[in-house]
Design goal:
This protein is 0% helix and 60% strand. The model has no long low-confidence stretch (mean pLDDT 84). It is globular, with a radius of gyration of 14 Å. The chain is mainly β and 101 residues long.
């Protein structure tokens, strides 16, 4: 491997929460957001979860507010104490602006 990052958009590292919703619209899982871009994100969960082909996520980012996205899994990697997922956004919208101080 040549070591070059092949992503189409730069990612910012985050230590935040990501909520994954089931088809009924209820929170199915909460994960730890690792990084984020306008095109996708990666997150980890302690116990592997079965992800549908398409699903909805909510991200709470201090610098951007609360975002919701329609997404799908791009990759999955099992690690010693967690499972990490990479997701690609089909749509992304801000549902609450960042709070002003």
């Amino acid at each position: 491997m040549n070591g070059k990052d092949k992503r189409q958009a730069p990612r910012d590292k985050h230590d935040s929460v990501i909520e994954i919703f089931n088809v009924e619209g209820k929170v199915a899982c909460i994960g730890r957001l690792i990084d984020f871009s306008s095109l996708g994100a990666s997150f980890s969960v302690g116990v592997p979860i079965v992800m549908p082909d398409k699903f909805r996520v909510r991200l709470r980012l201090m610098d951007k507010g609360v975002l919701e996205a329609e997404a799908r899994v791009a990759w999955m990697r099992r690690q010693a104490n967690a499972t990490r997922y990479g997701i690609k956004f089909d749509s992304l919208k801000q549902i609450r602006p960042k709070e002003l101080k």
